[in-house]
Amino acid sequence: MKSMIDALLARRSIRKYKDIMPEREKIEKVIEAGLYAASGKGLQSSVIVAITNRELRDRLSEMNRKIGGWAEGFDPFFGAPVVLLVLADRSSANHVYDGSLTMGNMMQAAYCLGLGSCWINRAREEFDTDEGKEILKSLGIEGDYEGIGHCILGYADGEIPAAKERRPGRVYWAE
Asked: In this structure, which topology does domain 4-154 adopt according to CATH?
């Protein structure tokens, strides 16, 4: 297991995946890390939908592609076999922040377990549609949830990208 600081500095978004399903134990560990994310007032407003069903994964990819305006055939999930959809209860004032922390924890955990990950946007737009709400209902998920993001997972197909140079002038000290 990598040290926390090393993992925070080394993790990168992966945009090309092997067509290999990660072991369920690894997926479960990534989910567990997300469930332990900090949350406003400890309300734990975010929920995770683990999508390993290829048909549903492809359906969400197509919805996402259309929202993003890409050409037919483009996969905004970059071939990742797993999508961990993060939703958060809109009644919680901090739901977007809670869901964001869930996403961050899962991406870091994935890296530590040897998996690639990437945050894919447009979950809000997907699940504000009638089709998105129908999907959630078919999965037994009821309530007023906002889509926060898709944490795509899988084994990277290629090298991990190098870190970009950090932009200067982003830290201010008040001593």
From this structure: NADH Oxidase (3.40.109)
